[in-house]
Amino acid sequence: MRFPYRATAPSAFSRLTSIQCRYASGQAFKAPSLRGQGRRRMPDYGSVPSPPLELFTSATESGFNLQWMEAIDIARKCISAAKESTETSTPNLVKDIHSDLHKITMVAAILQRSPRHHIVSEWLLPKVAHAGEPMAILILSSRLLNSKADNEAWLLRKLEVLAQQAKIWPAMVLYGSILESKGQLQSAVNWYQKAVEVAELSEPSETSNYLFSTSISRIRQPFEAYAELKLKLGEIDDAERAAELGALRYDRSQSFAILLATLLKTERGSDKIEEYLTKCAMGDGNMEARYHLGKIYLLWHLGLERFEAISVPDEYLSRPILQKLLSVSSRYYSPNDFCNMAKEWFHLAITQGHVLSMLQMAFLLREENKNHEGTLYLDSVEEHPKYAQMVVKLRDIWDKSDVDVSAITRKSVEP
């Protein structure tokens, strides 16, 4: 017989969604123990309902390598184990939950996504990480990149051991990233290089489970981590070779962005700049790539002299690069086509809130004698405090077609 959920004292978990009510546990919750009240307060696991079915079915559809029925059974047992735990007891998770540590960790990664079940995940992960479960170590270690806590030495040691096994490249990249954040750049380079070697020999399925968790999925690809650090160290050729691996073999937009940076630093490969920017702009919706792609088409529409008169100052596309780009413009499009393409890319960047694209659109419309339409974009730019004073000055000269706007923007827009 199923009992309706009865809330206890108000807590962070006192509100239930209709979905959670449907799948709430059939057992009445126990009153919290009064033993050890003087010590640190334990989280109120008793108020955590059984997880909703949809939490696991949606995860299965997005790549969760575990059947939802088994996953929800493990989740309920995890919640039960958390309820029965005390500060002094260390449960035998494998015995109590009747599952292996990897499956428990995968379920914990899913529970992280639910505000109602997050505390159970936080209770589970350190325990399975202490037991040496790789995915749990990766999830917890990924937080060290954004934390200055010095009390996680045990976790860093676990990660180092996992990286030294040279089997799981995310562990090697993550350990290298932590070393890089501590200023140990050469050691980080060595770890990234080893990770590249392991990744080249690995099948995607071998690491997909480790990258399932949202926090782990932010770990960089090894060739990108290596290329970015080499670029930072000024070793352009090494950075370019590593970026080419990710860009040309795996078609990754971030690798194209790094490869593009190497071309711009060396002021060569101008015939590839449009292609690489398009990969970045279309691959992951990079608004900076969309903005700069729009500027290239604007250059091909106006020519260098008119372009410089209305262009927002930009260190990214230097004058030598612009001159080289002029020589590689496509013969298949007319100047009017290039104008429309520029506007399309600016509009896409604007939908993402890119302020300089708004400003560039205003200047382009002014160039076309559509001053009123241009002021609508100026209104949006003015909402940003950094550019408010600049917009005031622009309004004073907006209807004077013989006044160059670039002089005003050059003082206000930092390259």
TrEMBL record:
InterPro entries: TPR-like_helical_dom_sf
Name of the protein described by the UniProt record: Uncharacterized protein
Lineage of source species: Eukaryota, Fungi, Dikarya, Ascomycota, Pezizomycotina
